[in-house]
Amino acid sequence: MNQKTLPILYSFRRCPYAMRARLALKSSKIVCELREVVLRDKPADMIAASPKATVPVLIDRDGAVVDESLDVMLWALRQNDPHAYLQPELGTEQDMLELISRIDGPFKQNLDAYKYAPRNAEPDSSIGVERDQHRDAAMACLTELEEKLLESEFLFGNRIALADIAIAPFVRQFANVDIEWFQSQPFPKLIAWLETFVSSDNFAACMYKYDKWVAPEPGIPFPEQQA
Ligand SMILES: N[C@@H](CCC(=O)N[C@@H](CS)C(=O)NCC(=O)O)C(=O)O
Question: What CATH topology corresponds to 3-83+204-222?
Fold first, then answer.
């Protein structure tokens, strides 16, 4: 396939927003030209296309720019959704979007405050207490997920859907701040759901380490096409 005809995806391996976009693209099998970005040295072409300069950014063949991760997911899955990620077994696409927005809002705010609090703060210092408050508030936001996972294997039924792949990268980010603490919490279903996600072939295929893209080299076709 001529790479010039592919949509372009500016991505950053470790960014949870870019991860959810890659997961949806992989499922939809829509091949893009992936350009791996280093956040402290973003490509001028990416900033020209999307001045807010966050990843992911997708540029469609016709030049249309999609620069919100959830929109990239929907862009891909509305064209091709072989695993019916937009049609969950339980609930509707709208129910999934509402849950995703609660996670993207209050949960993510508390996650960032927890994750980026100074590492060396003593537990009983004001910074340490505040960090733990954000950690606990973030965990409280995940109660809703645990409750859903008591009912079914995935968030909206017994098969994976949009909400799972949109949310799991953020729960992973939260868990990894202090994995021992996370795994000691009374959320067994959430812990098992996250483990299923991080150990999946799908996730591994979306976490391949690409070299930084340098213009004018072509990026890497993603998802990799199966022979
Ligand atoms: N609302 C955006 C958020 C994307 C975002 O904040 N990505 C981070 C990386 S995880 C970023 O690019 N930050 C810009 C920077 O660090 O310069 C989306 O859903 O795509």
Answer: Glutaredoxin (3.40.30)
